[in-house]
């Protein structure tokens, strides 16, 4: 027994001394820094994955959550990366998850609420600096021109500083400005086996508002953007492998609204009541998805963002048990020519 106590004491002293040496001395700090840098600062390899890769780059809505960015879904088909929306914090998620930013060529906007567009400038800068070979395309329904003109104006000085500092060869000014493209529902992209179809959703009074469906090498993913559950989504999501849908828990939002009113937060109570009529009720999604023949349903744009297991259990009340509640960094891999759907947890 005495020997064990001595061994434990010696181990504790050695661990403590090593920790102090590593953290408090320059040599120790440099050693740890080198190890961390060589592990993290590595050019990501070009993916050889054949199929659709989907990553949640923002699972939240405007209600604040320190661990979730606002609306953003990444869809990758080979070396083409599309984002559906770019809400606040989503550029950081993309970079922290090691997404090759230079391959992001297009952001598809579902509508122009701030929680879907506020990180456009960050994605633009991140992809420009990473070496994106063409201007970043901002695609969306009527109104996208004014959004893009506004960002280009607001960030004009920033772009000029970057080019002046790093040089026209390294950061060509022409590639720093966003390019707008207005679309209407229907097929909006069909190239090299990838088809993207925009479809109308119901986010009234916000109009136009659309969702997007991606079909690539026999695999398909549908992203709704903000909407209530509609027949149109059922049609657009017909036999899709994966449906990423807006999701609002009436039980949670009701309770929060009543709590806010009881606490004297009248404005908060009003807003919480108002938002209940233009998002997808979690309890209506499963039936629609089953009628559409969707393979896997996953909730994102969580209203409210789920922060603990109690909230999660309430959020998932009345929801089919195989439904996935996403979090930032969650990936879905859909290999070409199969019906496999692999879920990869955050890095
Ligand atoms: Zn939203
Ligand atoms: Zn919205």
Q: What descriptors fit this protein?
A:
7-stranded mixed sheet; AtsA-like_MBL-fold; 8-stranded mixed sheet; binds zinc ion; hydrolase; 347 residues; alpha/beta; globular; Metallo-beta-lactamase, Chain A; 24% strand; 15 strands
Rg over C-alpha atoms, rounded to the nearest angstrom? 23 Å
CATH class of the largest domain: Alpha Beta
Largest sheet: 8 strands, mixed
- CATH structural fold name of the largest domain: Metallo-beta-lactamase, Chain A
CATH superfamily of the largest domain: Ribonuclease Z/Hydroxyacylglutathione hydrolase-like
Percent helix, as a range, is 25-40%
Order of helices and strands: HHEEEHEHHEHHEEEEEHEHHHEHEEE
How would you describe this structure to a colleague?
- By secondary structure, the chain is of the alpha/beta class.
- It has two domains: 2-40, no CATH class; 51-344, 4-Layer Sandwich (Metallo-beta-lactamase, Chain A), CATH 3.60.15.
- It contains twelve helices and 15 strands.
- The protein has helices at 2-24, 26-40, 90-96, 114-117, 120-130, 144-154, 156-166, 231-236, 250-262, 266-274, 282-292, 309-315; strands at 51-58, 72-77, 80-84, 104-108, 137-140, 179-182, 186-191, 194-200, 210-216, 219-223, 242-248, 296-303, 324-325, 331-335, 342-344.
- Strands 6-5-4-3-2-1-14-15 form an eight-stranded mixed β-sheet. A seven-stranded mixed β-sheet has the order 7-8-9-10-11-12-13.
- It is globular, with a radius of gyration of 23 Å.
- The two termini are 43 Å apart.
- The model has no long low-confidence stretch (mean pLDDT 95).
- Bound molecules: zinc ion (ZN) (2 copies).
- One zinc ion binds at residues 61, 71, 113, 115-116, 226, 301.
- Residues 61, 71, 113, 115-116, 226, 301 line the site of one zinc ion.
